[in-house]
Amino acid sequence: MKSVVIFSLMWALISFYLYWPLFFSELRKGTSRGIVLARLYGGVLFGAIPILILLVLKANVFNNLGLRLPEGPYVWHLLSLLMIFLIVPLSYFQSKSSSNLADFPQIRDSHWDFKLILLNSFSWMFYLIGYEVLFRGFLLFPLIGEFSFEEALIINLMVYSLSHATKKFREGLGTIPIGIILFLIAWKTNSIVYPIVIHWFMALSNSFFSIRHHPDMEFVNKRKV
Q1: Whole-prediction pTM value?
Q2: How many other C-beta atoms lie within 10 A of the C-beta of residue 225?
Q3: Beta bridge partners of 87
Q4: How many Å apart are CA 160 and CA 158, to the nearest integer?
Q5: Which sign does the torsion angle of CA 47, 50, 53, 58 carry?
Q6: Distance in angstroms (rounded) separating the CA atoms of residues 210 and 95
Q7: How far apart, in whole angstroms, are the C-alpha atoms of residue 118 and residue 112?
Q8: Collapsing DSSP states into helix, strand and coil, what is residue 223?
Q9: Residue 74 CB: number of other CB atoms within 10 A?
């Protein structure tokens, strides 16, 4: 397991260098094609590639990365469902702020038809699967096996916060409580399923509400009547 820990930390740092410069380059452009491709690339880089590498090395990936259905005490299932329930109304009010609308939605197209909504949703969901495989999979379960709970949590939060270092201070600071909650949910349920779903609701609800509240964007229907 120690070799998996070393590989996980190493891959996290390597993937940051391979991903973030490209992503922020596309983010500044704000084009749908660039953002969608960058997200797909991130999902593969963060999740699929390290899993394939470990499978080739014959590591016991699925039992050690939380790639299973949630289990454990019911209180953690209820907490996860409560978070999912609260995310939507919170996103609605938070998405109205000028600071949010300056950055979201990441795709800066003015007219959002069904195809663009579908591409935005699928690319977010694919990206966040890989993202959670890295942060709540590789950077949680192997660490718990080699370090104390406190040490594993600190290492996880340090790397998680590092991934938000180039973002606004408020968003970066917000990664600490969110990171702790998602870490605990994954650990207590022995699964990354809830963190993935929670992150999906966070990203997609903020995207849709940001489009709704943005003065220069609108949902359109291209079907002829």
Answers
A1: 0.94
A2: 3
A3: none
A4: 6
A5: negative
A6: 5
A7: 10
A8: coil
A9: 7
